[in-house]
Amino acid sequence: MLKIDFHDETNSIDEAFIDLIDRVLTFAAEKEGIVGENEISVTFVNNSKIQELNRNYRQKDTPTDVLSFPMLEFGEEAMEFQDEELPRMLGDVVISVDKAEEQAEEYRHSLEREFSFLALHSLLHLLGYDHMDEQDEKNMFARQEDILNEFGLERS
Per UniProt, where does Zn(2+) bind (predicted)? Predict the structure, then answer.
């Protein structure tokens, strides 16, 4: 099970977006075989705040669309989820509402799909996926597309 704590620092996110992202991430967690009690937080911010976080944590002084802050360490092996008594905190997701709006327009798809893509992308990072090399990038982006398509959020 995945418990998601949402925080909207922009006071602009409609409850329907929160519900959609909750459903997409819960669906993705099931597809990824996550069992037991697991938690993440999803925070919506503006470009100024995400630029500050990007500068402080990644030494990149520009706004970005989404940041992931994993709480778990991953080795060479895929992470296995087992039922445990205590909830496991997977990490934090921070989404720039400004960037999501820009990218939805740029890629000519709905804001719903963009928010869902960014949240899913970040969840996969929390689960150990990355895109540091070409093969990892292909695997991660294919997984994202598969999950979004199966959920019913195909590219328009």
Answer: 121, 125, 131
